[in-house]
Amino acid sequence: MRSDFPGYKTGTIRVNAQDYPMVLRGAHTDRTWQLDRKYTSLVTRLGVSDSSISGTIIRVNGRIAREITMGSGEDVFSVDIDLTGAFRVTLSMFSDTYQSDTVGGWIDPILTY
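Given the sequence above, the corresponding structure tokens read:
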């Protein structure tokens, strides 16, 4: 995994008092990956740092495939998104508070063929 992606950093996030080391984490950011119809699914877990309230949006080919709002103290949430035939996927993190310590994370994200 690369050390970081524009708008996201890799590293550890603490969710509900448990550390997760393999995370794309960020605040108020999104990133689009070109898939070229090569992948069939995105499997990941979502988490929000213990000091945050955050929302996430997953878009496939520009359309919302899943939208989730989470708060601190919540357990991680598992997501499996069908990417069959998708040209691109966009992962977005946002928060209504716009605080600098608001961080959400995509935990162990995997694209499958």
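The chain has one domain: 4-112. Try to locate this feature in the token string yourself.
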